[in-house]
Specification:
2 copies of one chain form a homodimer. The first copy, chain A, is of the alpha+beta class and 415 residues long. Chain A folds into 2 domains: 2-149, 3-Layer(aba) Sandwich (Creatine Amidinohydrolase, Chain A, domain 1), CATH 3.40.350; 152-408, Alpha-Beta Complex (Creatine Amidinohydrolase), CATH 3.90.230. Chain A has helices spanning 5-11, 27-33, 60-64, 78-84, 89-104, 118-131, 146-151, 156-181, 201-214, 278-297, 304-317; strands at 16-21, 41-46, 52-55, 69-72, 108-113, 115-117, 135-138, 184-185, 191-192, 217-218, 224-227, 249-254, 257-258, 267-273, 339-340, 347-350, 366-369, 372-375, 380-383, 386-390, 396-398, 407-408. In chain A, the strands form 7 sheets. In chain A, strands 4-3-2-1-5-7 form a 6-stranded mixed β-sheet. A 4-stranded mixed β-sheet of chain A has the order 11-12-14-22, covered by helices on one side. The first copy, chain A, has a 3-stranded antiparallel β-sheet with strand order 17-20-21. In chain A, helix 8 runs antiparallel to helix 9. The longest helix of chain A is centred in the middle third of the chain and has 26 residues, at 156-181. Chains A and B meet through helix 3, strand 5, strand 6, helix 6 and helix 9 of A and helix 3, strand 5, strand 6, helix 6 and helix 9 of B.
């Protein structure tokens, strides 16, 4: 949690942290500022001291909403520095940072963070290190970085925000199911739109986007609504020209975010409209069985990776390739069981086979459970996913309930 | 233009370029791949050779849509490398990059690009430099970097996409004006909503978001709809709790983007509902006069900064502080005249007083003209902005026309 930052900085032997970039769509900066229209900011926090946020004058009022101590870049004579740097803004930024560090008396190990444009920032940091050899810039591997560890456990306010996105998500999923099942169906088993034309997947996606926007949620990273072959490739987002046909697997993986780059929710259902083929029904049953098995067996403070092992075991028994038996396979079970969800759609705890052993399902964790099986060459894929909160009392709670039905009966079609 | 990349690489003495990150919301990667749901990819291009895109297996099909040569990270035994790296994924990534560079026979100066999480990438690059001292990683200052220069001129396809966003933008602006002017007005000159309650600015913003979504445009970086004091602070986005009152300046600066992180449009109008006070009318007239003066005088292949000088001159004559007379001022004319627009909302050419002299208004440039005057303490601000394309025939064309009216008469209010 955010309140752990100083303790975590100490355990990582960081004397200060530097966060660069915008306040929005930049998880570490959003985490510390609360977001808002503040661009190209620099946040500096010494261990056990309050953070200071440097920004451009035009954005001072947006920055002030963070409640942080706000200071302006204009306090420094950047035009003079730019001249001294021969017009090189990356060098100018390094010189300014040097002045700020001297004023704030920062030395030692300084962690660097932020979602930024790499080139200029790399140039600035390399030049800064030359100016200030007393500072050691520390780039942490994202997976286990300070912010990933701090963000891993959520407070009640964060959980409430994720739960709100879950409510919106499941509302939109329900609207989508209602819409699809209300469509007329052609003699070739293709859904028809309001005008009697073949319903295209792109039109369904457009409706989903609209339903999200109406509710104040952003599909920042898109969403997956894929049918048939594409459903068999976990991250294919779906081909807009595909027709909506009965009896094919539809993977609907939707992960909207609060507007402005806030908290995500993550959710997947797999549907087959009208009826299911024996092959897809079997695949669904296996995934649903695995999902239930995992949920039944999940334990407080267990290692998340243990359930990846359990999932592999279950699917291997069913005869599917898994990351244990066939790493790099393009069919079978080919991803990890889940991941933390917060200001990042993917964050700690991790469940992959190579995840470190400190990825525990401890109180405050919000994470997905999402087993899946994929056979693109057979035109099918199934995934089931819910987002869970590990409550302070140790109970694993789904943050938004929704039925698991695979076959969605068509209201105007009787086979 | 994209077709200039090899020539630009040569002029910048770059033997290769490396682009990291997602294909979406990452302008250099979007530019070269066309976007799509490809995350944590690595694009490598040697000068005068075709680009190669490395990605995760799950995203191979999305990656293939780029038309580039796609290769999978899984071709490398990353589990072994990870073990060798002691579980440090940043080091593993450096080791893999080293293998790829050896295979592709890359050495010399390599430009690095991409919108990424800084910490882990910094660690990877520092480690990579140790592994491969024959490579010099070059972080270019963003303002004049390879991609900024290439993207500065647009081809017809890009212009068509920007124009389409302009059409959507002005449609939404018109809907907003129609909605506001149709509202009933209370005796205290506050607009009323459909239920007769005071209309809040947040409710207007929600409608604008919806109208954008209906048209397939994303307010990725938000938009500014600010009234009174907030209109006087250029980048304040507007306070949702503010009431919509007659006779106050409303700055509506809207810059939507194609969904998935594509091309932007940028547009501003300033309105006063029902009537204008003499002070705000005067301010508007001065900005409108400056806007017209600039547009009348703008010349093909001129230095963009010259028109910033002209704008300062005009506003100084009217008695306003400008960046020339009072740098760092919080009132008067306090920003630069415009900027390029493309996959970045702000890109080359630049018009600020410190911009380099090669920011020319040459054919293919798409840029904004946006003079403004701000007096937050007097509760007012005015900005007018259009996006122009410098056509191959040298004509400056507005990509979406919209009237400049300041006072919008209220249909159901007669003073």
């Amino acid at each position: 949690m955010k309140s752990d930052l100083d303790i975590l900085m100490k355990s990582k032997n960081l004397d200060a942290i530097l966060v660069f970039g915008n306040a929005e769509h930049n998880p570490p900066m959003t985490y510390l500022t609360g977001g808002g229209h503040v661009s190209a900011a620099t946040l500096i926090k010494k261990r056990d001291k309050a953070a200071v946020l440097f920004c451009n004058a035009m954005e001072r009022e947006e920055a002030a909403k963070s409640g942080l101590n706000v200071r302006l870049y204009d306090e420094y004579p950047w035009q003079d520095m730019l001249e001294e740097a021969g017009g090189d803004t990356a060098k100018m930024a390094a010189m300014r940072l040097n002045r700020i560090f001297l004023e704030m008396e920062i030395s030692g190990r300084v962690g660097i963070f932020g979602h930024v444009e790499l080139g200029g920032m790399f140039a600035t940091l390399i030049f800064f290190q030359m100016l200030m050899p007393s500072v050691e810039l520390v780039g942490e591997t994202r997976e286990n970085s300070l912010f990933m560890v701090a963000m891993e456990t959520k407070d009640e306010t964060e959980v409430a925000r994720i739960r709100r996105m879950g409510k919106i998500t499941t509302e939109v999923v329900r609207l989508t199911a209602d819409y699809l099942t209300s469509c007329e169906v052609s003699s070739s088993q293709v859904l028809l739109d309001e005008n009697g034309a073949d319903l295209k997947l792109g039109a369904v996606k457009a409706k989903i986007n609209l339903w999200l926007a109406e509710r104040g949620a952003s599909p920042t990273e898109g969403f997956i609504f894929a049918i048939g072959h594409d459903a068999g490739v976990p991250h294919s987002q779906g081909n807009p020209a595909d027709l909506m046909r009965l009896g094919q697997t539809i993977v609907f993986d939707i992960y909207p975010q609060e507007q402005g780059g806030g908290y995500f929710y993550d959710f997947t259902r797999t549907w087959s409209l009208g009826y299911a083929t024996p092959e897809t029904q079997k695949l669904f049953d296996q995934v649903y069985h695995a999902y239930n098995k995992i949920v039944e067996n999940i334990d407080l403070n267990a290692n998340f990776k243990d359930y990846q092992m359990l999932t592999c075991e279950i699917f291997e028994k069913d005869g599917h390739p898994t990351p244990r038996t066939q790493p790099g396979s393009l069919q079978g079970y080919i991803h990890s069981l889940g991941h933390g969800v917060g200001l990042n759609i993917h964050e700690r705890p991790w469940s992959g086979l190579t995840a470190s052993d400190d990825n525990l399902l401890k109180p405050g964790v919000v994470m997905t459970i999402e087993p899946g099986l994929y056979y693109p060459d057979q035109g099918m894929g199934v995934r089931i996913e819910d987002t869970y909160w590990v409550r302070p009392d140790g109970v694993f709670e789904i943050l938004a309930d929704y039925p698991y039905d695979f076959v969605l009966p068509m209201k105007k079609w009787n086979g």
